[in-house]
Amino acid sequence: MSSMTQESFRIGKLLFTPFSRLAEDGRYKAGLSIKREQGSSTHDRVSIYVPAFTRIEEALIYARAMGNYESIGLATPA
């Protein structure tokens, strides 16, 4: 399974890392890792989104947009 990560961005204590993965059907799935660091502990939540894309760039754009929505509390759970 092929994957690609886009540059991470930080908002407050949260680190957002958009990524995409090649699914078994040959399309790309968008994903987002949200890492929260608090003291000596770290919590990492990973979401894979339902839409599939024919181009990896499209999946990364979608993942980045979902990170922006998550940062302001507008995203729906995957």
Structural class: alpha+beta
Report the portion of residues in β strands: over 45%
**Helix and strand sequence:** EEEEEH
Biggest sheet descriptor: 5 strands, antiparallel
Report the CATH topology name.
Nuclear Transport Factor 2, Chain: A
Give the N-terminus to C-terminus distance in angstroms: 21 Å
Number of strands: 5
Percentage of helical residues?
10-25%
- CATH architecture, by name, is Roll
In DSSP terms (H or I, runs of 4 or more residues), the helix count works out at 1
Mean pLDDT across all amino acids: 86
Total number of distinct structural domains = 1
State the CATH class.
Alpha Beta
Low-confidence stretches: none
Shape: elongated
What does this structure look like?
21% of the residues lie in helices and 50% in strands. The longest helix has 16 residues, at 56-71. It contains one helix and five strands. The model has no long low-confidence stretch (mean pLDDT 86). With 78 residues, it is an alpha+beta fold. Strands 1, 2, 3, 4 and 5 form a five-stranded antiparallel beta sheet that branches. A hairpin with a 5-residue loop joins strand 3 and strand 4 (28-38). The protein has one domain: Nuclear Transport Factor 2, Chain: A (Roll), CATH 3.10.450.
